[in-house]
Write a structure and sequence with these properties.
five-stranded mixed sheet, binds manganese (II) ion, 724 residues, four-stranded mixed sheet, 16% strand, alpha+beta, Beta Polymerase, domain 2, Hypothetical protein af1432
């Protein structure tokens, strides 16, 4: 019962409003299940979940997250199942525990390790509680790392410094970030760490006295004179950031002037600026050391005013000015938003969360290692803040160019970008944006769009992916068109239209056999030379030849008169095709032949035989390509006499434009007892005059009927001519 009291005490201390009963029940289940298990330190295992819960409570998390924190190792290490958890603590808790359970650390340096991190990142994007528990879990494991074997210490510390600390930073959880970094340093660079500790300790007292006296001075100005309510405290840099300045930037310990700082917590945002004014009037500010993160918050929502001043005795000292709420966000980051219930903060939580989701959506790597490496880069990237022409703040990674900005605004803006202005002046697209730049993108409808060189200009993954996608789509549509043209040419040689080709069974089977999802993909592959055009054309040729052979075979068989009669009967169109019983005939739309016209047949692969007029221009062109496709056909005279068949026939009437002309024609046609299928008129330019072209389609039995009709149409007033 000693442990549960620790949890209760932590809840009381942090004054959070949670379901104590539920938390207690979780603890009892965890305690019972972990019974007989011990940590490497020799302590009861239950101590670990309890410490994790305490870290979560300190961050003021909600009941379910704390409960899941207590239960986070239970499914992995005991007989309790996820279903048990769901039954006892509800769906939400089970979901969080499941997320954490899936993220057990695998052996280091293997592909599995990357896969594990990738899984964690994906799980995070689904439920933020999972990552906050994971960070708390890692923090306690780092705190107790000394009980692990040396090799494991190094591996775990490395992974923590690479992934978990930057993640905590990006989510704004500064408290966890600092502690993780310092702990990592003590394992990864133990000598440097001890040296730093010694340096910090030697002048510690001196620095503390200095900070204290400066605070007293500030209180006099701010509380005493300006009568503002504030809390002022001193703060010291954590080891890892001193280490980075010394060992990575090559600075001497004594040159690091911001080892100490002072934090001023004000009641309102307006007072923050008031206090800034007071400080800058009393002390001399250090140029270039002023940052206003209140009006332009950092990516992780960090808000504060920073200003470094020359304090008493000429020493540099950094001041941070912020409100209570800003402070809690600065320390607990995204976790702080759990305790602020106002709408504004939920939106802020979504913003930081949106960043995470954004990264995941633009990640297109199938390889876990690439995914994790890119994610790591995203985590450590610094930001640059620029303004849109409307004055909106846009955050981009540092090093971003106007082109990145354009793609951030919208893919279309990026693709149509032809230039950019920064602060009213034209700059090259390669220009590196600076904080506070006002960026304007010049677009053109006729822009050529992205080229491969653009990939070297942009630095954001979002823009890179959008450009890659655009280039890919462009290449696809260009090559699809090219492949289509190649096929059209070849198909024409075989007497096929593109459509006939696409609908051909041979083609369909070919796509199926080679797993090509669509005809467009097939054209694309042809253009890319991944499929050979000869193959498919060869296949079609073979099938045409087979069909022709069949036709020829039936030619050879002796056709009796009786059979010929039968053939004619079968062919409802009134066409006799040179001895074959092929009834697959249709009339060409280009020349609409009528009985009495001299006609000719053209063998097509799919639709059998098409009947054209002998003088049809289309037909002449087609036979030029393949003479073998011409076939002799005749009208069946016996059928024509009986006028059994009606043919769809189209012709044009040219007339002056006047009222009622259409009506006159329609009436005339109907007086001839001829069925009018369709009629439409357009105004055209004929021999330099504007005339009406009326296109009529009628059902008619033969040419003589048409002749009579034409003679009568020509008698109507204002008719210029009738043409087929
Ligand atoms: Mn754990």
């Amino acid at each position: 019962m000693e442990y549960i009291r620790k949890i209760e005490e932590e809840i009381r201390k942090n004054r959070i409003n949670v379901d104590l009963e539920k938390i207690k029940n979780a603890f009892l289940l965890a305690e019972e299940s972990h019974q007989g298990q011990y940590r490497k330190s020799g302590e009861d295992y239950i101590l670990h979940p309890v410490e994790v819960a305490k870290i979560l409570i300190e961050m003021k998390m909600d009941t379910d997250t704390i409960v899941a924190g207590i239960l986070h190792d239970i499914v992995e290490d005991t007989l309790i199942t996820l279903a048990d958890i769901k039954y006892n603590f509800g769906e939400n808790v089970a979901e969080i525990v499941d997320g954490v359970t899936k993220l057990k650390t695998l052996p280091n340096g293997t592909k599995d390790q990357y896969e594990n991190i990738r899984k964690m990142i994906l799980a995070m994007s689904k439920n933020l509680s999972v990552v906050i528990i994971k960070l708390s879990d890692r923090l306690h494991n780092m705190r107790t790392l000394k009980y692990m074997p040396h090799a494991k210490q190094i591996a775990i510390a490395r992974e923590t410094l690479d992934i978990y600390a930057p993640l905590a930073h990006r989510l704004g959880i500064a408290k966890i970030k600092w502690e993780l970094e310092d702990l990592c340093l003590s394992y990864l660079q133990p000598e440097e760490y001890q040296e730093l500790k010694r340096l910090v300790d030697t002048k510690k007292e001196e620095r503390e006295i200095y900070v204290k006296s400066t605070i007293e001075e500030l209180k006099k100005y701010i509380i005493g004179e300006a009568k503002l309510k504030v809390t002022i405290s001193g703060r010291f840099k954590h080891f890892y950031s001193i280490y980075k300045k010394m060992y990575e930037k090559g600075k001497e310990f004594d040159d690091i002037y911001d080892l100490m700082g002072i934090r001023i917590i004000a009641e309102t945002k307006a007072e923050c600026y008031h206090i800034l004014g007071i400080i800058q009037s009393k002390y001399q500010p250090v140029p270039g050391r002023f940052k206003d993160y209140i009006s332009a918050p950092k990516a992780n929502n960090y808000q504060s005013i920073h200003t470094t001043i020359i304090g008493p005795k000429g020493k540099f000292i950094e001041m941070q000015i912020r409100t209570e709420e800003m402070n809690s966000i600065a320390e607990d980051g995204i976790a702080a938003h759990w305790s602020y219930k106002e709408k504004a903060n939920i939106t802020k939580k979504d913003q930081v969360y949106g960043w995470l989701k954004g990264i995941i959506e633009t990640q297109q790597h199938e390889n876990s290692q690439e995914f994790v490496e890119e994610f790591k880069q995203e985590l450590i990237r610094e930001s640059v803040f620029v303004f849109s022409p409307k004055g909106d703040i846009v955050e981009l990674v540092s090093g971003a160019t106007p082109l990145d900005f354009a793609f951030y605004i919208h893919t279309d803006v990026g693709c149509k970008c032809i230039g950019s202005k920064v602060n009213g002046k034209i700059v090259p697209l390669e220009y590196k944006l600076k904080n506070g730049d006002k960026v304007e993108i010049i677009t053109s409808k006729n822009a050529k769009g992205p080229g491969n060189d653009w990939l070297n200009i942009v630095v954001t993954n979002g823009a890179k992916n959008k450009i890659r996608k655009w280039l890919k789509e462009k290449k696809y549509s260009e090559n699809t068109k090219l492949g289509k043209e190649l096929i059209e040419k070849e198909a024409m040689k075989l007497g096929l239209t593109l459509r006939e080709f696409e609908e051909d069974v041979v083609v369909k089977k070919h796509l199926e056999k080679h797993n090509i999802p669509s005809i467009d993909d097939f054209y694309f592959q042809l253009a890319e030379k991944r499929s050979k055009i000869n193959v498919i054309i060869g296949k079609i040729k073979i099938s045409i030849d087979k069909e022709k052979e069949l036709l020829n075979l039936s030619n050879l068989t002796e056709v009796s008169n009786e059979k010929r009669d039968k053939t004619s009967k079968k062919n409802d169109y009134g066409i006799v095709i040179d001895g074959t019983n092929n009834t697959l005939t249709k009339f060409a739309k280009c020349c609409t032949p009528l009985p009495g016209d001299s006609v000719v047949g053209y063998v097509t692969k799919l639709t059998g035989i098409t009947i054209h007029r002998k003088d049809c221009v289309n037909f002449k062109n087609m036979v030029k390509i393949d003479k073998a496709r011409e076939i002799e056909v005749n009208w069946d005279s016996s059928m024509l006499e009986k006028k059994l068949n009606k043919y769809k026939f189209t012709f044009n009437v040219f007339t002056k434009d006047r009222p009622n002309i259409l009506m006159d024609i329609v009436t005339l046609v109907s007086n001839h007892k001829i069925n009018l299928v369709s009629i439409n008129s357009t105004e055209i330019n004929k021999d330099g005059n504007r005339v009406m072209k009326i296109k009529l389609t009628i059902d008619i039995s033969d040419k003589s009927e048409y002749k009579v009709l034409v003679n009568n149409i020509l008698k109507i007033k204002d008719i210029l001519s009738v043409e087929r």
